[in-house]
UniProtKB/TrEMBL annotation:
Biological process terms in GO annotation: mismatch repair
This protein's name: DNA mismatch repair protein MutL
Full-sequence portion shown in this chain: 8 to 334 of 617
Source taxon at top rank: Bacteria
Similarity annotation: Belongs to the DNA mismatch repair MutL/HexB family.
Listed GO MF terms: ATP binding; ATP hydrolysis activity; ATP-dependent DNA damage sensor activity; endonuclease activity; mismatched DNA binding
A GO term from the CC aspect: mismatch repair complex
Function: This protein is involved in the repair of mismatches in DNA. It is required for dam-dependent methyl-directed DNA mismatch repair. May act as a 'molecular matchmaker', a protein that promotes the formation of a stable complex between two or more DNA-binding proteins in an ATP-dependent manner without itself being part of a final effector complex.
Species this chain originates from: Echinimonas agarilytica
ATP-binding in keyword set: no
Keywords: DNA damage, DNA repair, Endonuclease, Hydrolase, Nuclease
Length: 327
């Protein structure tokens, strides 16, 4: 089974940022409101995610590291209308098959913390007592140490770090109710506290999308049937930045979907010639049975059941919002 894990790892574990994405999704699924992401050497050397989520009981630690062990799907049906972020039960098993992984956890109702350690694909899981506050930490050291071919594909520290920073920015734009800290080589790169007030929300938007965006973006909120679009859009007259903030979220997931992106650009095209300069953070919500998130294991892609309908709704909603801005 460990070999199967390594094969699965090829699909989910592409680079340090994809490991971090899976680990953070687990933390969010566990109800964490505070996340610390500590990485060394662009994640090549070490990734450590610490959360204040529900934790994992001692007798479930080994299971959490085995393939297809998920606490999130009770019936196969659930896959159809999945609401949690992770659901395949293979991220931890896959990651541990290509690294040295330590999972330390303490649920609030357990007096001591315990850790589970797994290394590569041939070793079992070791369980030991540990010290840890309520919540979990996952440490991934020496990613791809036993798969030299994959290791070779790791880019320079700077490139991997860039991917990680982009990921954290997207997650932070998806979850204003969660605080994030990003530490690279011992240095705090980002500290994004939980946003409870409009001022805190605006500060986070400013630190991720730029202060210009935070000041000038229009708030949009539209609905048609059970599809909803909300978020912020930069008015066409202010679109001038070289690498503008462009974020789209579907049912809370950070997804860069072709249908939605095309619709936004089409709406802007009425006002500006270079739609690449448009800037937005938009949140699309639709019933879970209207969107298939199960297209790719890493879940970067979705398929809409009625993509034409979604497309036209987004064009309309964005155009309406931009038009209001005209003199
Ligand atoms: P999945 O998320 O698809 O269920 P994973 O391999 O990512 O599969 O995780 C396996 C299981 O380990 C999860 O279902 C969950 O029960 C548990 N788990 C993993 N990470 C955490 C965490 N940070 N906090 C609490 N439980 C966790
Ligand atoms: Mg998961």
């Amino acid at each position: 089974p460990r070999l199967a894990n390594q094969i699965a790892a090829g699909e989910v574990v592409e680079r340090p940022a994809s490991v971090i994405k899976e680990l953070i999704e687990n933390s969010l699924d566990a109800g964490a409101t505070q996340l610390e992401v500590r990485i060394d050497q662009g994640g090549h050397k070490r990734i450590l995610i610490r959360d204040n989520g529900s934790g994992i009981a001692k007798n479930e630690l080994t299971l959490a590291l085995s393939r297809h062990a998920t606490s999130k799907v009770d019936h196969l049906d659930d896959i159809e209308r999945i609401a949690t972020l992770g659901f395949r039960g293979e991220a931890l098993a896959s990651i541990s098959s290509v690294s040295r992984l330590t999972l330390t956890s303490k649920p609030a109702d357990q007096t001591e913390a315990w850790l589970a350690y797994a290394e590569g694909r041939d070793m079992g899981v070791q369980i030991k007592p540990a010290a840890h506050p309520n919540g979990s930490s996952v440490e991934v050291a020496d990613l791809f140490f036993n798969t030299p071919a994959r290791r070779k594909f790791l880019r320079a520290e700077k490139t991997e770090f860039h991917h990680i920073e982009e990921l954290i920015k997207r997650l932070a734009m998806a979850r204003f109710d969660v605080g994030f800290t990003l530490i690279h080589n011992g240095k705090t790169i980002r500290n994004l506290p939980i946003c409870k007030t409009d001022a805190q929300t605006s500060r986070r938007i400013g630190s991720i999308c730029g202060t210009e965006f935070a000041r000038k973006a229009l708030y949009i909120s539209g609905q048609s049937g059970d599809i909803q679009l909300s978020g912020w859009l930069l008015p066409p007259s202010s679109c001038a930045q070289q690498s503008p903030a462009q974020y789209t979220f579907i049912n809370g997931r950070m997804i860069r979907d072709k249908v939605v992106t095309h619709a936004i650009r089409q709406a802007y095209a009425e006002f500006i010639s270079d739609t690449g300069l448009s800037a937005y953070a938009l949140y699309l919500t639709l019933p879970f049975d209207q969107v298939d998130v199960n297209v790719h294991p890493a879940k970067h892609e979705v398929r809409f059941i009625q993509s034409r309908l979604v497309h036209d709704f987004v064009v309309q909603a964005v155009q309406d919002a931009l038009r209001q801005q005209l003199p």
